[in-house]
Amino acid sequence: MSGKLINGKEIGGKIRETIQQEVNDLKSEGITPGLAVILVGDDSASHTYVANKQKACSELGIYSRLIQFEAEISEDTLLSQIEQLNTDSAIDGILVQLPLPKHINEQKIIDAISPYKDVDGFHPINVGKMLIGEPSFQPCTPSGIMKLLEYSNVDVAGKHAVVVGRSNIVGIPMGQLLLKKDATVTYCHSKTQDLSAITKQADILVVATGRAKLIGKEDVKDGAVVIDVGMNRDIHGKLCGDVDFDAVFEKVSAITPVPGGVGPMTITMLLYNTLQSAKKKSSRQPLVK
Ligand SMILES: Nc1nc2c(c(=O)[nH]1)N[C@@H](CN(C=O)c1ccc(C(=O)N[C@@H](CCC(=O)O)C(=O)O)cc1)CN2
After folding, report:
1. pLDDT attached to residue 219
2. Range of the domain at 32
3. Which atom belonging to ligand 1 lies closest to the Cα atom of 258?
4. Where is NADP(+) annotated to bind (predicted)?
5. Which residues of 244-265 are buried (b: 16+ CB within 10 A; e: fewer)?
6. Whether residues 111 and 171 fall in one domain
7. Is 158 in the same domain as 245?
8. CA of 121 to the centre of ligand 1 (A)
9. Is the full-model pTM beyond 0.90?
């Protein structure tokens, strides 16, 4: 089974080795990369992801600072915390773990993060730069998927890539990164008519809907490469993706598992972006509002 399986833990591990080497080099020059993580509320999945991010930082020698707030925190308090971090020289990357409680405007919070420290790649300046192919922080999940494809020798150019899902943090940037690598991209979403007719045409199928096992055997083409971004619980409480892994496995040429596929790459690319930010520390421009 291993030939078909795109193993995000293994590929992420290889990339983390090169990041670690570069972190060591930077540290020998007296620079320690630093990441600030803001966590609001008590969502248990968010707590797990943040703990995993901190553990990964510590394994690679990246300084991480956790800033925790109760769910009732005001938007203004959050904004002033971000302002402080924007000018903190020990901090190269700032991330606010999503989702935020409903009374907080997520976009307003993202907009307040300095684009020079926006290691999630969610700030409109980084999104815009990514769209026109300028160097920028790229969002971690889509850029991690591009790495999975690259390390698995999947040539994207000229292929029909179908992205199911249009979120700002995964679906939309995913399609754009595939387009930049010369794929022919189709977006599908909750209003798409006859989803299956389109997913069946995909050479590369990326599914990011948050709907457990939405994609089954009848929805994929023979030999397709399937990337599952989903993170759901099945009726037995077991972690599962948006793709019915067991049903499609025989049909596809390669597939990511859940867990152990895309998830670990999200954290790897966060470490990568934090390192890139630390490398640019000396040339970082003051934020012009
Ligand atoms: N500020 C951000 N918020 C959120 C992001 C993000 O990129 N930035 N993405 C997701 C959550 N996420 C990272 O924050 C994330 C999700 C899943 C994993 C992961 O490694 N999953 C494991 C399984 C973990 C488990 O057992 O529960 C896997 O797939 O193997 C990492 C990061 C939303 N919020």
Report:
1. 98
2. 28-119
3. 29
4. 165-167
5. bbeebbebbebbbbbebbbbbb
6. no
7. yes
8. 15
9. yes
Residue at token pair 């999630």: 120
167 is in an annotated binding site: yes
User: Among the options 81, 92, 97, 147, which is catalytic?
Assistant: 97
Rounded distance, CA 91 to CA 178, Å?
31
Q: Using a 6 Å cutoff on CB, does residue 239 contact ligand 1?
A: yes
The active-site residue out of 92, 118, 120, 244 is 120
Q: Is residue 5 part of a domain?
A: no
Residue owning the nearest CA to atom 33 of ligand 1: 98
* Owner of token pair 């040539």: 155
Would you state the pLDDT for residue 1? 45
Using DSSP, state whether 233 is helix, strand or coil.
strand
Ligand 1 touching residue 272 (CB < 6 A): no
Residue 98 CA, closest ligand 1 atom number: 3
Domain of 77: which CATH number?
3.40.50.10860
pLDDT in tens, 162-204: 999 999 999 999 999 999 999 999 999 999 999 999 999 999 9
Residues 146 and 242 in one domain: yes
What is the average pLDDT value for the chain, to the nearest integer? 96
Instruction: Indicate the residue among 55, 90, 119 that finishes a domain.
Output: 119
pLDDT in tens, 231-281: 999 889 999 999 999 999 999 999 999 999 999 999 999 999 999 999 998
Q: Strand 239-240 and strand 232-233: pairing?
A: antiparallel
Q: Please check whether residues 103 and 45 belong to one and the same domain.
A: yes
Annotated catalytic, 120? Answer: yes
- 187 and 258 share a domain? yes
Give the strand pairing for 204-207 and 225-228: parallel
Number of domains the chain contains: 2
